[in-house]
Amino acid sequence: MYDNQRGEEMDVEFPVALSGAKSSTLMWAPEHEVGAQALQQLRNIAALPWVHGVRVMPDVHLGKGATVGSVIAMKQAVSPAAVGVDIGCGMEGVLTSLTATDLPDDLSVIRSRIEAAVPVGFRAHEDPVSVRKLGLDRGWERFWGSFSSLHDGVQDREKKAHQQMGSLGGGNHFIEVCLDDEDRVWLMLHSGSRNIGKELAERHMRIARQLPHNADLPDRDLAVFLAGTAEMDAYRRDLTWAQEYAARNRAVMLALVMQAVRESFAQPVGFEQPISCHHNYVAEETIDGLDLLVTRKGAIRAGLGDLGLIPGSMGTGSYVVRGLGSERSFYSASHGAGRRMSRNEAKRRYTVDDLIAQTAGVESRKDAGVLDEIPAAYKDIESVIAAQADLVEVVAHLKQIICVKG
């Protein structure tokens, strides 16, 4: 493996076992390159009595309660922190019939159309999106009809949840127009379950912390729900709904972006079958012959043949990958490049001029509001992909030419 950050060859064969872990913990990252707090967080997770094993992706970094870039297989238990507050966050991407030669010299018009179609940051649609007009009219009555069964604390949030359906959010969420190595145009976006997912997650985390069996945990943020309890049933119900909200949110956004792109060209624009993947979620899976609950927080499923999207940063490009079905990784791979510094550190260390230089050639925001998303705040995506060569194969390398952020 070649580490572009250090500029030297590394004699490391992945995975490596995490020292001091009480349950099987394999890493696709050198231990010395992972922060001390993140390593301790992983050891705390591995020490939970319900944990069968932990797998650590090359984009690993410190998270709230559970480490970002972790895959945790549990027996009859699940930790809400191991999913994260943005339940169902993930990626959506689609190959278009356009090529680089079809694009105008001035890409700001396409960016403006996308920003007009999809609210970003804290904004939402004034009126709910007409999904029927977008050709996405299946299952909505059942989906919204189940809102009344969610946690009592969110029942006054239904109107907002309707308005935020088809909106991006902020932080590391984005919409991009990209070119692959054959100069074909792709559309790609990253978002999750918006405020409703966060509200549900935080309410269940508070409930979990108060349960007696979590009293002696090394970190109360790792509190778990146990199978067969009312609390677990309630969490799984709300979790499943929020994961579906996130998937539907991305589908609606992608349809809006596709519509905006169509309207930007005189000729017809075609689209292939979209690629979609969660990277903050829970699934029931068979691991090592056991039926377990697997949480992926900042990790995608990479079963044999599974297509996935692994983004870098707003200036460094992304990858379309196909899973190789690695049993050792619990059929998983990284969800992105992963941060190498906190948002506050990025703001302290870099200037808007640095952001402008690092996003040269990308039609995007270049102001203090997105300085914490500067490419240098992220790990090198090439090294991250190289570290998981046994987990995924590269289908396409994408380089963004338009990036929309909240």
TrEMBL record:
Keyword Metal-binding belongs to the record: yes
Residues involved in Mn(2+) 1 binding: 86, 173
Listed name of the protein: 3'-phosphate/5'-hydroxy nucleic acid ligase
EC number: 6.5.1.8
Details of cofactor binding: Binds 2 manganese ions per subunit.
Residues annotated for Mn(2+) 2 binding in this entry: 190, 279
GO molecular function annotation: DNA ligase activity; GTP binding; manganese ion binding; RNA ligase (GTP) activity
Keywords on record: GTP-binding, Ligase, Manganese, Metal-binding, Nucleotide-binding, RNA repair
Residues at which GMP binds: 172-176, 279-280, 311-314, 318, 335-338, 405
Record-annotated active site: 335 (gmp-histidine intermediate)
One GO BP annotation of this record: DNA repair
CC cofactor: Mn(2+)
InterPro entries membership: RtcB, RtcB-like, RtcB-like_sf
Catalytic activity entry: a 3'-end 3'-phospho-ribonucleotide-RNA + a 5'-end dephospho-ribonucleoside-RNA + GTP = a ribonucleotidyl-ribonucleotide-RNA + GMP + diphosphate
Keyword match Transit peptide: no
